[in-house]
C-alpha cells in the first residue's frame, strides 16, 4: 500500500512488526480452546461431582451412593463413566435429542396437496381438508393431515388465518386517565381492587329495562349494588360515590370494561378522588371475573325472584336489602362459607 512519508516521499507499508507477534498468533487458538474448557462448571455438574466424590470416599459402592442421593444405580454408573472419560466436563448436561427421529411417512405430493388446499381455505381444519383430499384420490387419515399441518406450521410455510372480526372496526380509545392494570399489581388487602360492571335487567313484560350496577371487592367479596334508569357516565359517577361510601374500607383502585358509561365524567371523578382506574382490553370479560360472577348471582337470587315493584325508588330499596343480605347473611364459598362481613372481622383479628 502506497503512503506518503513525512516529507511527501512515497513509501511502501507491508505491515507492522511486533516483538513476539508470530508466537502469540501461533498460540492464540490453543489458548482460546483452553479458556473455553476452563469456564466454571454448572450447578448440575457440581451436584453430580459431589455424588462422584462421595462414592469414592465411602467405599466406592454404587448401591450405597444411589440410596444416599436418591438415584438409580444406572445413573451413578453413567456419571462415573463420564467422569472417568472426560473429567468434570463429562458431568455437564448433554443434549437429550434422540439419535433417530421419526421421519414423515407421507409423500411430498400429499404434503403439497395439503398446503395447496390450506392456502386456498386458510380457516379450514384437518377434518374438512381430508374430505377434499380423499375426493382427489389421496389416501390420508385425519390424524396424518393434522401432522402434516403441524409440520408445515413449524416450518413457517403454513398461512395463518386472520381471526380479526371483519365487522369490528378498530377505533382509537382516548382515555386521559385510565390505564391497563400492570402485571405486577396484585390486590392483597380489601380495597386494593374493586371491579365495577353494568348489566341490563327487565322486570315486567312491557319491555321496560333498568341498568344494574355491581361493584365487588376482589379480596373480601364485599358487594355494592345500584340500579338506574339509564347507564351513562353521570349515573356511573353517582354509583362511584355510593361505592366509596358503602365499601367497608378505603378504595384504592377501580377496574372497568370499555363501556361508554365508564368514560368522561366517571373517569374524571376517579382522577379527582385519587383512585387508580384500570380499563380492560377489548373483548376480555374474563379479566373482570369477580364482578361478572356477582352480576349472575344477583340476577338469579334477586331479580328473578322479585315481583315487579311499582317504582324505581321501591326497586332501589329492595336492592339495598339484597346488598345487606349478601354481605352479612349469605355464606360465600370463596371465603370458606363465611360472609364477607365475617371474613373482614376475622382478617382484622389476624392482623
State the helix count: 12
| Molecular shape | extended
Q: What can be said about the biggest beta sheet?
A: 5 strands, mixed
The low-confidence parts are 13-17, 30-36
How does CATH name the architecture of the largest domain?
Answer: 2-Layer Sandwich
Secondary-structure class? alpha/beta
Number of domains: 3
- The fraction of residues in strands falls at 5-15%
Mean pLDDT across the residues is 86
Notes on the protein architecture:
The chain is α/β, with parallel strands linked by helices and 351 residues long. The protein has 3 domains: 41-91; 108-154; 194-350, Nucleotidyltransferase, domain 5 (2-Layer Sandwich), CATH 3.30.420. The protein is built from 12 helices and 7 strands. The chain has helices at 21-37, 43-57, 62-69, 73-86, 108-120, 126-135, 142-154, 233-246, 265-272, 289-301, 312-328, 340-350, and strands spanning 2-4, 10-12, 194-202, 209-217, 223-228, 253-256, 276-279. The strands form 2 sheets. A 5-stranded mixed sheet has the order 5-4-3-6-7, with helices on both faces. Helix 9 links the parallel strand 6 (253-256) and strand 7.
Amino acid at each position: 500500500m502506497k503512503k506518503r512519508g513525512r516529507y511527501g516521499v512515497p513509501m511502501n507499508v507491508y505491515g507492522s512488526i511486533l516483538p513476539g507477534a508470530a508466537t502469540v498468533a501461533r498460540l492464540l487458538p490453543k489458548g482460546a480452546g483452553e479458556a473455553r474448557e476452563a469456564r466454571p462448571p454448572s450447578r448440575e455438574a457440581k451436584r453430580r461431582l459431589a455424588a462422584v466424590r462421595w462414592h469414592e470416599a465411602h467405599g466406592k459402592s454404587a448401591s450405597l451412593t444411589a440410596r444416599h442421593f436418591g438415584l438409580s444405580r444406572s445413573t451413578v454408573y453413567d456419571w462415573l463413566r463420564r467422569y472417568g472419560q472426560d473429567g468434570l466436563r463429562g458431568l455437564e448436561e448433554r443434549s437429550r435429542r434422540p439419535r433417530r427421529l421419526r421421519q414423515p411417512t407421507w409423500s411430498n405430493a400429499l404434503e403439497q396437496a395439503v398446503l395447496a388446499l390450506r392456502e386456498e381455505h386458510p380457516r379450514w381444519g384437518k377434518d374438512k381438508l381430508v374430505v377434499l383430499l380423499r375426493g382427489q384420490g389421496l389416501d390420508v387419515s385425519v390424524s396424518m393431515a393434522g401432522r402434516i399441518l403441524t409440520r408445515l406450521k413449524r416450518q413457517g410455510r403454513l398461512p395463518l388465518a386472520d381471526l380479526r372480526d371483519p365487522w369490528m372496526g378498530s377505533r382509537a380509545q382516548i382515555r386521559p386517565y385510565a390505564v391497563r392494570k400492570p402485571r405486577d399489581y396484585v390486590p392483597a388487602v380489601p380495597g386494593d381492587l374493586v371491579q365495577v360492571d353494568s348489566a341490563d335487567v327487565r322486570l315486567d313484560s312491557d319491555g321496560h329495562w333498568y341498568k344494574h350496577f355491581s361493584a365487588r371487592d376482589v379480596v373480601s367479596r364485599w358487594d355494592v349494588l345500584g340500579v338506574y334508569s339509564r347507564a351513562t357516565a353521570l349515573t356511573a359517577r353517582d354509583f362511584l360515590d355510593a361505592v366509596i361510601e358503602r365499601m367497608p374500607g378505603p378504595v384504592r383502585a377501580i377496574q372497568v370494561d370499555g363501556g361508554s358509561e365508564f368514560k368522561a365524567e366517571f373517569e374524571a371523578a376517579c382522577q379527582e378522588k385519587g383512585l387508580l382506574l384500570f380499563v380492560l382490553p377489548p373483548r376480555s370479560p374474563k379479566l373482570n371475573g369477580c364482578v361478572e360472577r356477582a352480576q349472575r348471582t344477583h340476577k338469579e337470587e334477586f331479580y328473578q325472584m322479585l315481583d315487579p315493584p311499582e317504582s324505581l325508588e321501591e326497586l332501589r330499596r329492595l336492592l339495598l336489602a339484597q346488598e345487606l343480605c349478601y354481605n352479612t347473611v349469605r355464606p360465600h364459598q370463596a371465603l370458606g362459607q363465611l360472609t364477607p362481613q365475617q371474613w373482614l372481622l376475622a382478617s382484622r383479628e389476624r392482623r
